[in-house]
Amino acid sequence: MRSLPKSEDLTSLVVRTDFGDDVRWEAFIAALRSTDEYPVATFVSDPAYAGVTIQQLVDADAAAEPDDREFYLFVADATTLADDEFPLLAVDLDTEPGRSFRVPVRFYGDVSANLSIANLDFADFADAVDATGTYRGSD
């Protein structure tokens, strides 16, 4: 598998792994972009990532040079694109590689912004999920 691309400055990497419905992918992008007036994501829509597992993404990041590694990423998979809340899969690539949780697009900005500036750690969000493993904002 190819290495992961680098996210653009102060954005988070969003990797598409489901290629079954381009209309839903475009609806997801529009929903995510509507959450903030500034760019919030580096979108990766490359069929080379079709169906990849979390472990494959973790391994691809671990194989990169240290300066090219990401600390986390978001996956737009079949679950993301099938649900009107577009619950992305957030994946830790650094402290607990492979640890993950879901985050609906409406809470993405909070998670992405805080992770991109290292204001909060991945665990701060992962430890605050509901019974379904989904982060739905802070209390």
Automatic annotation (TrEMBL):
InterPro entries: DUF6924. Residues 11-137 form the DUF6924 domain. It comes from the Bacteria. This is DUF6924 domain-containing protein. It comes from Actinoplanes octamycinicus. The lineage of its organism: Bacteria, Bacillati, Actinomycetota, Actinomycetes, Micromonosporales.
